[in-house]
Amino acid sequence: MTNPYVPLLFFLAIGGGFAIFSVAIAPLTGPKRYNRAKMDAYECGIQPSPQAEGGGRVPIKYFLTAMLFIIFDVESVFLYPFAVAFGGLGLFALVEMVLFILTVFVAYAYVWRRGGLDWD
Amino acid sequence: MTGTAEAVTFWILGSLSVLSALGLLFARKAVHAALGVAFTMAILGIFYIGQGAPFLGVVQMFVYSGAVMMLFLFVVMLIGVDSSDSLVETLKGQRWLTLLLSLGLGALLIGMIGRITVTGTPNLNAINASPGNISAMAEVIFGKYVWVFEITSALLITAALGAMVLAHRERMGEKPNQREWARRRFQRGEFVSGLPAPGVYARHNAVDTPALLPDGTPTELSVSRTLQARDQVARPGLFSAAEHDPHQEIEEGSAR
Amino acid sequence: MTTLLPTAFTVAEINYWAILPVLIVFGGALIGVLVDAFAPRSSRHSIQVALALLTIAASFGALVWKAVDNKGATLDGAMIIDGPALFMQGSVLLLSFLSVLLMAEKFSSAGADAFTPMGAAVPGSPLEAAATRAGWGTSEVFPLALFSVAGMMIFPAAGDLLVMFVALEVLSLPLYLLTGLARRRRLLSQEAALKYFLLGSFSSAFFLFGSALLFGYAGSVKFSALSQAITTAPADVEGLLLPGVLLVLVGLLFKVGAVPFHQWTPDVYQGAPSPITGFMAACTKLAAFGAILRLAYTGIDADRWDWRMGVAAIAALTMIVGSVLSVTQTDIKRLLAYSSVAHAGFILVGVLAFDATGVSGVMFYVLAYGLATIAAFGIVALVREGSAEASHIAQWSGLGKRHPVVAGIFALLLLTFAGIPLTSGFTAKFAAFAPAIAHGGTTLAVLVVIGVLCSLVTAFVYVRVIVLMYFSEAQGEVRALNPSVLTTVGLAVAVILTVALGVFPAPVLDLANQASQFIR
C-alpha cells in the first residue's frame, strides 16, 4: 500500500524546488547592464512615493468590500457540505438551504440598493 | 500509527508553522505579523486534512486564512499601524499582572483538564468510513442543528447592515454623468473640450506625468488633484536626463 | 455517552406553532431590511416604525394564541418552549414594543431624534451637517432592534449550548451597532460601542470555551444530556465540568452586568442613545436572566454545590459595588447604570433559591425592573438643555417646579427602583428574596441581608435626586420636550404598568407562578 503522503511530499518537493530554482537561476545567468530607464516604473506606472499618504492607510471602502466578502464566504461554508451530501438529504435540506440563501440575499439587496457596491 | 511520510510532513510543516508563528511575535510591521498568522493558519488546515478531518481543514483554509485573516489585514491597513507607534504600556504593571493571571488560568485549566483519562487512540476512522466526513457534517447541520444554521443567517444580515451603517457614506444627491459634466463646462465657459490629458513622453506616459505647454512648462491641469496634493507629480526632466548626460549614465552603471 | 452522529439522516421534528413568535419577528426584521433597501427615503421612518410595532404585536398574538398550547421541546430539543420561556418571550415582546415607541420619537428632526442621520460620517463633519439638513435618518435601527428581539426570544428558550451561543450573538451584535448610533455626543457613543463590542466578544469567547469543555464532558451540548451526565458522573472526564460551568457562567453574567463583569455597563449606558439604553437595560437583562435560569435549573443544577458559592459571592459583590458606586455618580445615565448593576445582584439572589418560587420571583423582578427602566430612560431622553440631553445630575435641579409631571413620573420611577412599599420594586424584591430565605439556607439569608442594606444605600441615592428635583433652585435652560403621541403612549403604558405591578401584583405574580415549571 502506498502511503498517501508520498505523492504529497513529492509534489511539495517538486513545487518548492522549481520555485527556488527559477528565482536562483535568473541573477546567476542574466546579463547585468545598468540603465537608468530600467530603474523607472514601467511605461504607464506612476513613480512610487517613499511614504504613502496618512501612514499607508487604505480607505474604509475596502473594509466594506472585505466584510461583504466574508459574509458570502461564510455562506459558502454551509453550501459545501450541503452540496457534497445533497443526495442523502432530500427536500427538507433543499428548502432550508434556499431559505438561508434568500435571507442572506436580503442583505445583498440592501447593500446593492444603498450603493454599497458602487465605487465612487 | 505515524508513518515515515507523515512524520516528514509533520516536521517540515510543523517547523514552518512555528517559524511563521514566531513571525507574529517578532515582526516589526503589523502587516507582516498578520501574514505570519495567515500562513500558520493555512498550515494548520493541512494538518487537519492529514488527521482525517477534511471539512475542518477546508474551512480552516477558507474562513481563517481566506477571510478572517484578510479582514485582519484590512483592519491593520485601515488604521495604518506601523513600527513608529509607541509600544509603551499606558497602564503600569499591566504586563506583569497579565502574565500572572494568564499563568494562573493556565495552571487552573491544566490542573483540571489534566485529570482526564483517555482510553485508546481517538480517531475519526469510523465516522469517515460510514457517512463520510463532510456528509456527516451535512447531516448534523440539516438535522439536529438546523435551527442554529437558520438563525446564523440573522448574524450575517446584521453584519452586512452594520458594515453599511458604520462604514458606507451614501452620496448626497445624484452622481453627475458625462452629459451633466459637459453641460456644466459649457455653462461656465471654461475647459469646454475637457481638461488636458496627462503628457505622453518618449519613455513614459502615466497619470503622474504632466502635459507640457508650448513653452515647455508643465501644466497642473493635466494631473489629478490627489497626486498634486500628495506631491507625487513627476518632473518632466526626469525622463530626459539620461539623454543629456550619457557619460554620467555609464559611470553610474560601472559603479554598481 | 450519546452517539455524536446519526447513522442515517433524519429531519428534526418541528412544531411550527411553538416557534411561530420567533419566526414572525425574524420575518418582520427581514421585511424591514427590504424596506430600507427599496422604499423611498422620505417614507422609510414611518414604514419601519409601523412594521416593527406590527411585527411585535403579531408575534405577541401568536404567542398568546398558539404557542402557549404547544409547550414542549421542538427542533430536536434545540428550542424548549415551556412556562419560563413563554413568560420571558412575552415580556421581551411587551418591553420591546414600548422601546420601539420611544425609539420612534422624532421631536423636530426629520428622522428619529435619538439616532444619527449618517453613522458613517465623521462626527462634526460637513457631511454630517448636510445629512442632518437633508433630513436623513438611520431607519436601519428598527430592523436591527427586531433582530435583537428575535435573539432575546431564543436565548431563554434555548435547549442546548450551541443555540444559546448563537442567540447570544444574534441579540448582541445589533446592540453593539445601535450603541454607536447616537445623534449627539457621537464620539462618546462610538467609544461606547467599541468598548461594548470588544468586551462582549471577549465574554462570548468565554462562553464558547466553556461550552466546548462541557461538550467534552457530556458528549452533547444539550442541557438535558449535560444534566444526565452530571448525575451519572463520568469519572474520567470529570475535570472538564467545573471549568466549563464557570466559563459559561462568566459569559452569561457579563450580559446581566454582574461584578466583576460589569465594567462595560456605565460607559455603554451613558454613550448609547437613551431609548436604546432603556431597551438594552430592560430586555437584555430579562433575556440573559432567562438564559441563566435555564442553564442553572435544567443544565447544571445537579452540580450546583460546586458553583453555588461562587455565584453567591458574585451576587454579593454585585449588590455592594453597584449600590456603593451609584452614590458617587454625577451623570444620570451612569447612575441608572450602576443601579442596574445593583439590581442584577438582587435578581441573582433569587436565581440561587433553586425553587419554582425563585423562578417566578426572578421573572416578576425582571419584568417590573424592565418596565421601570424603559420609562426612566424615556424620561431622560425628554429632559434637555439646548438640544442635548441634560444628563448631568446638577442640571436636573428644580425640574419639579418647571415640569411637575415629568419630574413626578421620574420620582415615582426612582422610588420603584429603590423598592419603596406599594411600588413594583418592593413586590419584585420581595418575590426574589422570599424564596431565597425559604430555600437557600444561611448563605442566601446573608445575601438577603446584604441586599436589604444595599437597597437602603441606593434608596439614599434616589432620594437625593428627588430632593434635588424638588427642593433646589433651577439653573440654566433645562426643559422637558413635549413628546409625540407614540412616545406619550409608550411612557404612559410603562408607568401605568409599573404602578399596577406595585398596587395589584397578584395577577402577574400568579401568571409567573403558573409559568415557573421548566421542561427538561
From TrEMBL, chain A:
Subcellular locations according to the entry: Cell membrane; Membrane
Protein function: NDH-1 shuttles electrons from NADH, via FMN and iron-sulfur (Fe-S) centers, to quinones in the respiratory chain. The immediate electron acceptor for the enzyme in this species is believed to be a menaquinone. Couples the redox reaction to proton translocation (for every two electrons transferred, four hydrogen ions are translocated across the cytoplasmic membrane), and thus conserves the redox energy in a proton gradient.
Classification of source organism: Bacteria, Bacillati, Actinomycetota, Actinomycetes, Micrococcales
EC number: 7.1.1.-
Enzyme class: translocase
Domain of life of the native organism: Bacteria
Family statement drawn from the similarity comment of this UniProt entry: Belongs to the complex I subunit 3 family.
Keywords attached to this entry: Cell membrane, Membrane, NAD, Quinone, Translocase, Transmembrane, Transmembrane helix, Transport
Record flagged with keyword Amino-acid biosynthesis: no
Keyword Cell membrane: yes
Quaternary organization: NDH-1 is composed of 14 different subunits. Subunits NuoA, H, J, K, L, M, N constitute the membrane sector of the complex.
Main location: membrane
Ranges that cross the membrane: 6-29, 62-83, 89-111
Protein name as catalogued: NADH-quinone oxidoreductase subunit A
Organism annotation: Nostocoides veronense
Record Pfam families: Oxidored_q4
Topological relation to the membrane, as annotated: Multi-pass membrane protein
Reactions this protein catalyses: a quinone + NADH + 5 H(+)(in) = a quinol + NAD(+) + 4 H(+)(out)
